[in-house]
Amino acid sequence: MNKDTKIDIPIMADVAAKGEQVEYLYWVGCAGAFDLRYQKVARSFAKILNHLELRYAVLGTEESCTGDAAKRAGNEMLFQMQAMQNIEILNGYNIKKIICTCPHCYNTLKNEYPDLGGHYEVINYTEFLDDQIKKGNLNLDKNPFENLSITYHDPCYLGRGNKIYDAPRNIVKAVYGEVKEMKRSKSSALCCGAGGAQMFKEAEKGDKEVFIERTEDVLEQKVDKVATACPFCMTMLTDGIKFKNKETEVENLDIAEIVSQALDL
What we know:
It holds the Pfam family CCG. This is (Fe-S)-binding protein. With 265 residues, the protein is an alpha/beta fold. The chain has helices spanning 12-17, 29-34, 36-52, 68-72, 76-92, 103-111, 125-134, 166-176, 210-220, 231-243, 255-262, and strands at 24-27, 56-57, 97-100, 121-124, 150-152, 225-228, 251-254. Helix 3 crosses helix 11 (255-262), helix 7 packs across helix 8 (166-176) and helix 9 (210-220) crosses helix 10.
């Protein structure tokens, strides 16, 4: 496939209109829909799903925010309004399995929607991709990447929030051979500075912003790449690398982009 061609992504309403059902709903998330940088990640993951020839679809314009930011900011009423609207749509399509590329969407759909009647098998894309690699469904070409070094930043809502540490590392190792661990990693990893709705407010008084501190952890490893698995982390670490004037030396890649590149999609 030409990398610049339009990607054919099934829309749930169109699938349902044909009387068909999908195995997976890909929950794109606000960042995947609206953030120019993370749209590239969503495209990469969609390419992988197409490569696997899976029965999947996205909600398209019917997808709304999960309500994560509203809940973290303390607006429980808005969260429940958003959640119940989404649950009505998901149940209307009889959705059983949801794959998320955003840990915030994943955490909210998996751990908070059941209290409001939204019961689904919610899958994080790193575990999904790790499983597909182990099954031999994704044959990754690691030759172009074997001389490059990489570290991995644990997103809070993926790591400490849901104990997903191994899957993203397994994927990075499958392509790059090894992961250079930062001094603060896994359960001791430092937040990128955007979680808990901090992404949407001004910085508080202090000597240094969190994303700068975390970027320094990355640069300390003297690597060519840093892998992330969250749109908030992608934004904060990319900004940190630019702040340090290291964007020509260190590239921030999402896990989905790493797999897509190794498949030459």
